[in-house]
Prior knowledge:
This protein is α/β, with parallel strands linked by helices. The chain has helices at about 20-30, 55-60, 75-90, 115-145, 165-185, 205-215, 220-235, 245-255, and strands at about 10, 35-40, 65-70, 95-100, 150-155, 190-200, 265-270.
Amino acid sequence: MYNLQGKAVFVTGAGGEHGIGRAIALRLAEDGADVAVTDIVEKPYPEAEWSGLPALKAEIEAMGRRSLALTCDVTNASSVEAAMQRTAEAFGQVDILVNNAAARGGGDRVPVVDLPDYEWDRVMAVNLKGTFVCSRGAARHMMARGGGRIISVSSVLGLRGIARFAAYCSSKFGIVGLTQALAQELAPHGITVNAICPSLTPTERVGHMVNLFENPQLEVKEATDALLSGAAGSTPIGRLAQTDDLAHAVSFLASDGADFLTGLSLPVTGGSFMR
């Protein structure tokens, strides 16, 4: 556990019950922070029984922390600025930004020669532009008070490219570059900027991703299980990343223990990627 008492956190892409954003928000609240949770809509998975952002807000408040549940389009500067201003007014400041929002896989997961412009633009808008817009907005708040933390969720595919993921890989590589540039710009203001680069992590998105690639004769659950089993088998630690593993890494980077760390893109991969 790290001590984040008195800190105000802004987390994007937090509306999934089994998502990375929810795990991060809960861990930082457990560490003592007040947390604003955001997503493009309150309930990004309408078919699920879980009610999305309002349910997460209630969970955080049940831990004795303050919380806001805000809809926010990370590709739109006005939407981001309004959400951050509401957070600053409610909590007094924005100390920690977690850029977690990401575009769902879709028609972008094809060979480059078949990749439509609009699919490339969609992925870049959410993954890379969204990280830029939120980081810029948070940095302005943090500079005014002389310190803060910006932590972005990139991907192991932001460190190595693979076929049929050109838009996704490019956007996640871009987050790594943005992290390094911002780290240098913001260091004089007491702001550290880091990223985590997770390997495949079971969330609501995995089943959707399987639909795009696997044998169409297989049921989604069967194909998902095969994908996850294969990925776990190729990991030296012998299991997949869990959302809590990523939340632990973010918690550390948000803590005083990471004061001297900036510009990092930390692989959280169980050893499946090393450098």
